[in-house]
Amino acid sequence: TDHLRGFGRIAxxxxxxxxxxxxxxxxxxxxxxxxxxxxxxxxxxxxxxxxFIEANPHKLEQVFINLIGNAExxxxxxxxxxxxxxxxxxxxxxxxxxxxxxxxxxxxGIPEDVQxxxxxxxxxxxxxxxxxxxxxxxxxxxxxxxDGEIACESASGAGTAFIxxxxxxxxx
Length: 172
Description:
alpha+beta, 5 helices, disordered N terminus
């Protein structure tokens, strides 16, 4: 309950020095039962001792919940098409002066023409009533607010990876 209350106050918080693994792990607390009920296997590949980044942890939870929800949707479509198992990979690592988080699914993939528009507000490929088209736009805005980046690697039928990159926080 306390965690949900904190999550509900995301708009009022400033940036803090955080371990990127924490909001990723906390986001799963909120949606773990849903993933389990939908038979999604979570493959954790979190690096230990990551340098801190400067971000709002609750806003990053919002990003991860959205990306994981989109991944679950794509994996469900793929499972219905060909019966494949649903595997969600959550990975963190350091790359030079950046801390990276990756949310990878083995779902339907995103066609190249859709990738060009997917971060635009109100763009959605979901049926009417199932999506607002704001999720990825908000994710992009939150990443940018933390001087970070969000990118997509995908191919139709081959799954998708969303990669978030954040600069290492200055020592202080």
